[in-house]
Amino acid sequence: MALVLCTGSDESLMQTRKLILEQAGHQVILASNLIAVEQACAKHDFQVIVLGHTLVSPEKRRLAGFVRRVCKTAKILELLRPGQSTKSVPDADDWLEVPVGDPAELATRVTALAAK
User: Which residues fall within 8 angstroms of residue 99, CB to CB, at 6 or more apart?
Assistant: First the structure.
């Protein structure tokens, strides 16, 4: 499956996402800040980057900009807060409002992005 970088500011949510994605066959690396993202991107060629919904908009934009420059082929999935009408990363490849009724939806979206 895909090599996925999951970002966020809530460790427990990131661990939950990692578990969901790994159960779907993906390999997942976690990063909670730009330095960790930089280190991960220097070592790996990610297919999908998940921007957690708990990240503030400026941080999401900063991470997305970095990823677009360094991991040029990676697809970006921005997770949105419930009812969030404005996307922080308008050029993301997909968006998903969380929480979702079916947690497997996260894995479905990541799988679809990795296949593009």
Answer: 82
pLDDT tens for each residue of 56-84? 999 999 999 999 999 889 999 999 988 88
Neighbours of 105 (CB within 10 A): 15
Distance CA 87, CA 78 (A): 8
Residue 95 backbone phi and psi in degrees, to 5: -135, 150
Domains of the chain: 3-115 (3.40.50.2300)
Query: How far is residue 43's CA from residue 61's CA, in Å, rounded to a whole number?
Result: 22
C-beta atoms surrounding 54 within 10 Å: 16
The DSSP line for 36-77 is HHHHHHHH---SEEEE-TTS-HHHHHHHHHHHHHHSTT-EEE
> Does pTM surpass 0.90?
yes
Shortest CA distance to 106 belongs to which of 67, 64, 53?
53
* C-alpha–C-alpha distance, residues 9 and 44, integer Å: 21
